[in-house]
Amino acid sequence: MPELRFLPAAGKYFKKLKEKGLKEKFNQAIQSILENPFIGEAKHGDLESIYCLDVFYNKTNYELAYVVYQEENQVIVVIMAGTRENFYENLKRYRK
């Protein structure tokens, strides 16, 4: 099974989540990523090598961005999570 790590931005976001249903949706998404790391949509251009997975909850679209490193043991690093609004602009800023 791949190793899972969180960057500070993602860790803070998950720590602040209070809604149990949304936490459960994100946990299910992370389990899906651990089972098949390439389940998310591969991004191009400025966000090359980043995968994003949509998480739908309560009529709102959330995103989960992560990178898969192919070393001896596969490592999945969750970069950022949040609502779709301004998500990609924030992700580009965070990546720089």
Automatic annotation (TrEMBL):
This protein's name: Plasmid stabilization system protein
InterPro entries: ParE-like_toxin, RelE/ParE_toxin_dom_sf
Phylogenetic lineage: Bacteria, Bacillati, Bacillota, Clostridia, Lachnospirales
Gene3D superfamilies according to UniProt: RelE-like (3.30.2310.20)
